[in-house]
Protein: Phosphate/phosphite/phosphonate ABC transporters, periplasmic binding protein
Organism: Sulfurospirillum barnesii
Amino acid sequence: MKVNFFLKIAFFLCLSLYAHAKQSLVFAVNPYKNTEELRTQHAELIGYLEKALQREIVFIVSKDYTHLLTLIEQGNVDIASISPKLFATSRQKKIPTHYLATFKIQDHQGNARSSYRSLIITRQKNSLQTLNDVKGKRFGFTDVDSTSGYLYPRFMLKQEGIDPQKELGKVYFLKKHPKIMQALLENSIDAGAIYDGIYLTLPKSEKEEIRILASSDEIPYDVMIASKGVDKALVTKIRELLLAFHSTQSAPNTIMGFEEKSLILYDTLLYLE
Protein backbone atom coordinates (compact mmCIF):
# COMPACT_ATOMS: atom_id res chain seq x y z
CA MET A 1 0.00 0.00 0.00
CA LYS A 2 2.80 2.38 0.92
CA VAL A 3 4.50 1.63 -2.40
CA ASN A 4 1.32 2.50 -4.31
CA PHE A 5 0.95 5.67 -2.27
CA PHE A 6 4.47 6.84 -3.08
CA LEU A 7 4.03 5.89 -6.73
CA LYS A 8 0.92 8.05 -6.91
CA ILE A 9 2.75 10.93 -5.23
CA ALA A 10 5.64 10.56 -7.69
CA PHE A 11 3.20 10.44 -10.61
CA PHE A 12 1.47 13.67 -9.61
CA LEU A 13 4.80 15.34 -8.94
CA CYS A 14 5.90 14.43 -12.47
CA LEU A 15 2.67 15.81 -13.87
CA SER A 16 3.17 19.01 -11.91
CA LEU A 17 6.74 19.39 -13.12
CA TYR A 18 5.65 18.66 -16.70
CA ALA A 19 2.89 21.26 -16.50
CA HIS A 20 5.33 23.80 -15.08
CA ALA A 21 7.84 22.99 -17.80
CA LYS A 22 5.21 23.52 -20.48
CA GLN A 23 4.62 27.03 -19.13
CA SER A 24 8.17 27.98 -20.12
CA LEU A 25 9.44 28.55 -23.65
CA VAL A 26 12.93 27.67 -24.86
CA PHE A 27 14.42 30.45 -27.02
CA ALA A 28 17.60 29.54 -28.95
CA VAL A 29 19.92 31.76 -30.99
CA ASN A 30 22.87 31.40 -33.37
CA PRO A 31 26.30 31.74 -31.68
CA TYR A 32 27.44 34.75 -33.74
CA LYS A 33 28.68 36.52 -30.57
CA ASN A 34 29.67 35.24 -27.14
CA THR A 35 26.89 34.10 -24.82
CA GLU A 36 26.90 37.12 -22.51
CA GLU A 37 26.76 39.59 -25.40
CA LEU A 38 23.84 37.69 -26.89
CA ARG A 39 22.06 37.49 -23.55
CA THR A 40 22.43 41.26 -23.10
CA GLN A 41 21.29 42.00 -26.65
CA HIS A 42 18.12 39.91 -26.22
CA ALA A 43 17.33 40.84 -22.59
CA GLU A 44 14.76 43.56 -23.35
CA LEU A 45 12.95 41.37 -25.88
CA ILE A 46 12.87 38.40 -23.51
CA GLY A 47 11.52 40.54 -20.67
CA TYR A 48 8.83 41.93 -22.97
CA LEU A 49 7.72 38.46 -24.11
CA GLU A 50 7.77 37.01 -20.60
CA LYS A 51 5.54 39.81 -19.31
CA ALA A 52 3.10 39.62 -22.23
CA LEU A 53 2.89 35.81 -22.33
CA GLN A 54 3.14 35.28 -18.56
CA ARG A 55 5.71 32.55 -19.21
CA GLU A 56 9.34 32.07 -18.36
CA ILE A 57 11.65 32.11 -21.38
CA VAL A 58 14.75 29.93 -21.16
CA PHE A 59 17.51 31.48 -23.30
CA ILE A 60 20.12 29.20 -24.87
CA VAL A 61 22.92 29.66 -27.40
CA SER A 62 23.55 26.74 -29.75
CA LYS A 63 27.02 25.19 -30.13
CA ASP A 64 27.09 26.17 -33.80
CA TYR A 65 24.72 26.96 -36.65
CA THR A 66 24.09 23.33 -37.59
CA HIS A 67 23.34 22.47 -33.97
CA LEU A 68 20.60 25.10 -33.89
CA LEU A 69 18.94 23.55 -36.93
CA THR A 70 19.09 20.14 -35.22
CA LEU A 71 17.48 21.55 -32.06
CA ILE A 72 14.68 23.05 -34.14
CA GLU A 73 14.14 19.88 -36.17
CA GLN A 74 13.99 17.73 -33.03
CA GLY A 75 11.56 20.10 -31.35
CA ASN A 76 13.95 20.86 -28.47
CA VAL A 77 13.35 24.61 -28.77
CA ASP A 78 10.10 26.53 -29.03
CA ILE A 79 11.27 29.73 -30.69
CA ALA A 80 14.58 30.63 -32.30
CA SER A 81 16.50 33.43 -33.93
CA ILE A 82 17.95 31.84 -37.04
CA SER A 83 20.35 33.17 -39.69
CA PRO A 84 18.99 33.93 -43.19
CA LYS A 85 20.88 31.09 -44.85
CA LEU A 86 19.96 28.58 -42.16
CA PHE A 87 16.31 29.57 -42.49
CA ALA A 88 16.50 29.06 -46.26
CA THR A 89 18.13 25.67 -45.66
CA SER A 90 15.38 24.66 -43.24
CA ARG A 91 12.78 25.52 -45.87
CA GLN A 92 14.70 23.60 -48.53
CA LYS A 93 14.84 20.55 -46.24
CA LYS A 94 11.12 21.03 -45.50
CA ILE A 95 11.73 21.22 -41.75
CA PRO A 96 8.33 22.33 -40.41
CA THR A 97 8.58 25.73 -38.72
CA HIS A 98 6.45 28.86 -38.44
CA TYR A 99 7.94 32.11 -39.72
CA LEU A 100 7.24 34.81 -37.15
CA ALA A 101 9.06 37.98 -38.22
CA THR A 102 12.36 39.52 -39.30
CA PHE A 103 14.60 41.46 -36.91
CA LYS A 104 15.13 45.21 -37.18
CA ILE A 105 18.52 46.23 -35.76
CA GLN A 106 19.74 49.75 -35.01
CA ASP A 107 22.75 50.79 -37.06
CA HIS A 108 25.49 53.21 -36.03
CA GLN A 109 23.47 56.16 -37.38
CA GLY A 110 20.43 55.34 -35.24
CA ASN A 111 18.36 53.80 -38.04
CA ALA A 112 16.39 50.58 -37.57
CA ARG A 113 17.46 48.23 -40.39
CA SER A 114 15.95 44.91 -41.42
CA SER A 115 18.85 44.08 -43.73
CA TYR A 116 22.64 44.22 -43.64
CA ARG A 117 25.69 43.50 -45.80
CA SER A 118 28.61 41.11 -45.81
CA LEU A 119 32.05 42.70 -46.01
CA ILE A 120 35.42 41.30 -47.02
CA ILE A 121 38.03 43.34 -45.21
CA THR A 122 41.77 43.67 -44.69
CA ARG A 123 44.08 46.04 -42.81
CA GLN A 124 45.19 49.31 -44.36
CA LYS A 125 48.77 48.25 -43.58
CA ASN A 126 48.45 45.16 -45.77
CA SER A 127 49.34 45.22 -49.45
CA LEU A 128 45.88 43.95 -50.47
CA GLN A 129 44.12 46.59 -52.57
CA THR A 130 41.48 44.59 -54.46
CA LEU A 131 39.56 41.36 -53.92
CA ASN A 132 41.83 39.61 -56.41
CA ASP A 133 44.76 40.23 -54.06
CA VAL A 134 43.45 37.73 -51.47
CA LYS A 135 44.72 34.82 -53.58
CA GLY A 136 47.17 32.80 -51.54
CA LYS A 137 46.48 34.87 -48.40
CA ARG A 138 45.35 33.77 -44.93
CA PHE A 139 41.57 34.19 -44.84
CA GLY A 140 39.03 34.07 -42.03
CA PHE A 141 35.41 32.92 -42.34
CA THR A 142 33.01 32.50 -39.42
CA ASP A 143 30.88 29.37 -39.92
CA VAL A 144 29.87 27.45 -43.06
CA ASP A 145 26.21 28.16 -42.22
CA SER A 146 26.73 31.90 -41.75
CA THR A 147 25.23 34.07 -44.49
CA SER A 148 27.54 37.07 -44.12
CA GLY A 149 30.49 35.17 -42.66
CA TYR A 150 30.74 32.50 -45.36
CA LEU A 151 27.98 32.14 -47.96
CA TYR A 152 28.03 35.66 -49.41
CA PRO A 153 31.80 36.24 -49.19
CA ARG A 154 32.40 32.92 -50.93
CA PHE A 155 29.95 34.02 -53.64
CA MET A 156 31.75 37.36 -54.02
CA LEU A 157 35.10 35.59 -54.34
CA LYS A 158 33.72 33.29 -57.02
CA GLN A 159 32.31 36.28 -58.92
CA GLU A 160 35.84 37.67 -58.94
CA GLY A 161 37.06 34.40 -60.46
CA ILE A 162 38.63 33.13 -57.23
CA ASP A 163 38.03 29.54 -56.13
CA PRO A 164 37.83 29.77 -52.30
CA GLN A 165 38.72 26.10 -51.90
CA LYS A 166 41.80 26.18 -54.11
CA GLU A 167 43.14 29.72 -54.40
CA LEU A 168 43.08 31.09 -50.87
CA GLY A 169 45.99 30.45 -48.54
CA LYS A 170 45.35 29.07 -45.06
CA VAL A 171 41.62 29.27 -44.28
CA TYR A 172 40.32 29.67 -40.73
CA PHE A 173 36.78 29.20 -39.43
CA LEU A 174 36.65 31.39 -36.33
CA LYS A 175 32.91 30.96 -35.58
CA LYS A 176 32.19 34.50 -34.35
CA HIS A 177 32.34 37.79 -36.26
CA PRO A 178 34.27 39.70 -33.55
CA LYS A 179 36.95 37.00 -33.69
CA ILE A 180 37.47 37.75 -37.39
CA MET A 181 38.11 41.40 -36.55
CA GLN A 182 40.37 40.47 -33.65
CA ALA A 183 42.41 38.07 -35.79
CA LEU A 184 42.77 40.71 -38.49
CA LEU A 185 43.92 43.43 -36.09
CA GLU A 186 46.35 40.97 -34.48
CA ASN A 187 47.71 40.07 -37.94
CA SER A 188 46.70 36.40 -37.56
CA ILE A 189 44.87 36.59 -40.91
CA ASP A 190 45.33 38.78 -43.98
CA ALA A 191 41.64 39.19 -44.84
CA GLY A 192 38.29 38.04 -43.53
CA ALA A 193 34.52 38.15 -43.84
CA ILE A 194 32.19 39.88 -41.37
CA TYR A 195 28.74 41.44 -41.27
CA ASP A 196 28.82 45.21 -41.55
CA GLY A 197 27.47 45.80 -38.04
CA ILE A 198 30.82 44.74 -36.58
CA TYR A 199 32.72 47.22 -38.75
CA LEU A 200 30.29 50.09 -38.20
CA THR A 201 30.54 49.88 -34.41
CA LEU A 202 34.35 49.88 -34.30
CA PRO A 203 36.07 52.77 -32.53
CA LYS A 204 37.23 55.39 -35.02
CA SER A 205 40.89 54.50 -34.50
CA GLU A 206 40.28 50.83 -35.36
CA LYS A 207 37.94 51.63 -38.24
CA GLU A 208 40.71 53.70 -39.81
CA GLU A 209 42.91 50.59 -39.80
CA ILE A 210 40.44 48.66 -41.98
CA ARG A 211 40.12 48.57 -45.76
CA ILE A 212 36.91 47.19 -47.30
CA LEU A 213 37.70 45.03 -50.32
CA ALA A 214 34.12 44.04 -51.18
CA SER A 215 30.55 44.59 -50.00
CA SER A 216 27.58 42.34 -50.74
CA ASP A 217 24.05 43.13 -51.81
CA GLU A 218 21.61 43.71 -48.95
CA ILE A 219 20.82 40.59 -46.92
CA PRO A 220 17.61 40.30 -44.87
CA TYR A 221 18.30 40.08 -41.14
CA ASP A 222 17.82 36.97 -39.02
CA VAL A 223 14.31 35.64 -38.56
CA MET A 224 12.33 34.55 -35.55
CA ILE A 225 10.68 31.18 -36.04
CA ALA A 226 8.55 28.87 -33.92
CA SER A 227 9.06 25.12 -34.01
CA LYS A 228 6.43 22.67 -35.19
CA GLY A 229 5.35 21.77 -31.64
CA VAL A 230 4.18 25.26 -30.71
CA ASP A 231 0.41 25.67 -30.61
CA LYS A 232 -0.95 27.69 -33.55
CA ALA A 233 -2.75 30.13 -31.28
CA LEU A 234 0.51 30.77 -29.41
CA VAL A 235 2.35 31.20 -32.72
CA THR A 236 -0.15 33.89 -33.73
CA LYS A 237 0.17 35.59 -30.34
CA ILE A 238 3.98 35.64 -30.44
CA ARG A 239 3.96 37.00 -34.01
CA GLU A 240 1.61 39.81 -32.96
CA LEU A 241 3.81 40.62 -29.97
CA LEU A 242 6.98 40.72 -32.07
CA LEU A 243 5.44 43.05 -34.65
CA ALA A 244 4.26 45.32 -31.82
CA PHE A 245 7.66 45.36 -30.07
CA HIS A 246 9.54 48.67 -30.04
CA SER A 247 12.76 48.97 -28.07
CA THR A 248 13.11 51.75 -25.51
CA GLN A 249 16.89 51.65 -25.91
CA SER A 250 19.10 53.43 -28.42
CA ALA A 251 22.49 51.96 -29.20
CA PRO A 252 24.11 50.25 -32.19
CA ASN A 253 23.09 46.59 -32.61
CA THR A 254 20.00 47.02 -30.40
CA ILE A 255 17.00 44.90 -31.41
CA MET A 256 14.62 47.75 -32.29
CA GLY A 257 11.62 45.77 -33.52
CA PHE A 258 10.41 43.37 -36.19
CA GLU A 259 8.74 43.38 -39.59
CA GLU A 260 7.38 40.82 -42.01
CA LYS A 261 9.34 40.08 -45.18
CA SER A 262 8.68 37.97 -48.24
CA LEU A 263 10.14 34.50 -47.77
CA ILE A 264 11.40 34.65 -51.36
CA LEU A 265 14.17 36.97 -50.11
CA TYR A 266 15.48 34.10 -48.00
CA ASP A 267 14.92 31.35 -50.55
CA THR A 268 17.08 33.20 -53.11
CA LEU A 269 20.08 32.79 -50.78
CA LEU A 270 20.16 29.11 -51.74
CA TYR A 271 21.24 30.09 -55.24
CA LEU A 272 24.47 31.54 -53.84
CA GLU A 273 25.76 28.01 -53.12
